[in-house]
Request: fold
Amino acid sequence: MKPVKIGILGLGTVGGGAVNVLKRNAGEIARRAGREIIVSRASARDLTRTRICDTAHIALSADPFEIVNDPDIDVVVELMGGYEPAKQLVLTAIANGKHVVTANKALIALHGNEIFAEAGKKGVMVLFEAAVAGGIPIIKAIREGLAGNRIEWLAGIINGTGNFILSEMRDKGRDFADVLAEAQALGYAEADPTFDIEGIDAGHKLTILASIAFGIPLQFDKVYTEGITRITRADVEYAEALGYRIKHLGMARKTTQGIELRVHPTLIPKRRLIANVDGVMNAVLVCGDAVGPTLYYGAGAGAEPTASAVVADLVDVVRAMTSDPENRVPHLAFQPDAIVDIPVLPAEAIRTAYYLRLTAEDRPGVLADISRILAAHHISIEALIQKEPLAGQSSVPIIMLTQLTLEKEMNAAIAEIEDLATVSGAVNRIRLETLG
Reply:
């Protein structure tokens, strides 16, 4: 059969990795896809830059619009990242009747609803396995492998930078700022690490996972995000002493009231497999009503791990190119007319357990005052640690674990505790999930 010609937009780390995998495994890929897949054209901002891949026999261009408008290109692979010009390039490719493969989680999370609608009109496919958790085939697992299940919840370590920082803080007793600087030096974090450490990157990925898990529209604007900048070495040590580890977790849960969508630091019992995922690795835990909890683990970034997902999408596109659009796997797992706009719950409606750390005066009655405030808001204490004061100090750290409670009640209780004259500074609150 006639080879499928693809055009790659962006020849950076992932683009170069994709070229290498396609060339190295060309024979195996053709056996799986049923047709040869050829990288015909590619675009890059700087055509003189040294690449990690061999660009021989690939027509290079500085203008990506030349590729999406080329009638000889069958599939466009968008690996530029960002919102623009990526969005316009993808929409132009779709308008020209081309299938699209992308690793752009921000693009899908914010503009996926529009992109998929346009793709549906033109009868083309838009695949995005590489947009979440790098080389882990988590989207295919939920969309196809777990199609017989009603997904109850999912939880994921889906940002390697944040996981690396928390792992180093725990294993080596280092401070947040010190590890962040190393992450930047190693290339795990950008010069501006905001997207990673404040949960925005994980929020993009959680948006996509929740949509395919629950059959809801993509709605990044409703994801609650909280970063890891307030996590201290002391918090990591106290969590460990209590039998927990702190992970920057993306959590989506379907309740009778609606959908929880949240990214935040989370205490997880040390015995859970996901609590032992360290360094830059990613993992996603998915619980279906029939299968129960299932765990997916692997590299969340990198040239060839991400390229593995890109190429898998290309194989799927080539396999399905001759099928009727109505018989293809839906973009968001559910048929387009079956997507349901279930309400996403506000953060105050979340129900979870909590870790609290505060500094209070070491004298009688202080702990009783704090306990009375918690009780007034229907918050029960599960465990408590009170340290001895250091020489010459009159204040001590108090660490508490609570039972399940509403976030709204916890917010009110924390405000009252911080108003006590015997409590100094802010109460540090970290949510706790048993993931049972």
The longest helix spans residues 105-122. The chain has 14 helices and 17 strands. The CA atoms of residues 330 and 336 lie 7 Å apart.
